[in-house]
Design a protein that fits this description.
- This protein is 28% helix and 27% strand.
- With 203 residues, it is α/β, with parallel strands linked by helices.
- The strands form four sheets. It has a four-stranded mixed beta sheet.
- The termini are close together.
């Protein structure tokens, strides 16, 4: 579903960073052959974490900037406005943020953003008692910046500010709902929510 939705928005090349059940992703491409030529499956020998996996996958990226998505989350935010904002503001890192009250199932396990003037990211915490905007797990990132990050295993969320260094990260505020689809139970719940997986998105 996520690949179909991305393709409908004009994206034509996909990189899947995998470790657990990596062969299942390759099997998927044999079934949905319309994605075979446009998709690269990268198998990590050991789990690299969200940061390490992004650094590892960036070696296969051809464009100056790219969209990175956490496959366990879903937010129906159109990506072209986010890309336009990223380019217009000349940022190296843009993160989509969702309102905590729009997180289906609660925002307790989502990264909480500390936001400065003009939507600049000044902090990201794994959890907080008071939260308004949370990390939606969708990013626009500059390839060269990611290639400058260290290789190895680490999490993007807990190391974000150190990875950005002197670069300024930007928030794109989305009013759309955010849903965890990382487990069969959550994915089944998603399919029961009216309009969340809208049929026109994948027509």
């Amino acid at each position: 579903y996520l690949l179909l939705r991305l393709r409908r928005q004009g994206f034509h090349r996909f990189i899947l960073a995998t470790h657990y059940l990596s062969e299942k992703f390759k099997d998927f491409l044999t079934i949905y052959d319309e994605f075979t030529q446009a998709t690269i499956v990268i198998s990590e020998k050991e789990p690299l974490g969200t940061g390490g996996a992004l650094r590892h996958a960036a070696a296969w990226v051809r464009s100056p900037c790219f969209v990175a998505l956490n496959g366990a989350s879903f937010i129906p935010q159109p990506l072209l406005p986010v890309l336009s904002s990223h380019v217009r503001l000349r940022k190296s890192f843009t993160m989509i943020a969702a309102r905590s009250e729009n997180v289906v199932g609660g925002a307790e396990n989502k990264g909480v953003l500390e936001i400065g003037d003009g939507g600049q990211i000044i902090g990201l915490s794994p959890r907080a008692k008071s939260q308004r905007w949370v990390n939606a797990g969708v990013y626009i990132v500059d390839r060269d910046m990611v290639l400058s990050w260290p290789e190895g295993r680490y999490e993007l969320e807990t190391n974000l500010m150190a990875l950005l260094g002197q670069r300024k990260g930007q928030v794109f505020f989305s009013e759309n709902r955010l849903l965890d689809i990382g487990t069969p139970e959550c994915y089944a719940e998603a399919n029961q929510l009216p309009g969340l997986f809208a049929s026109e998105d994948i027509a």
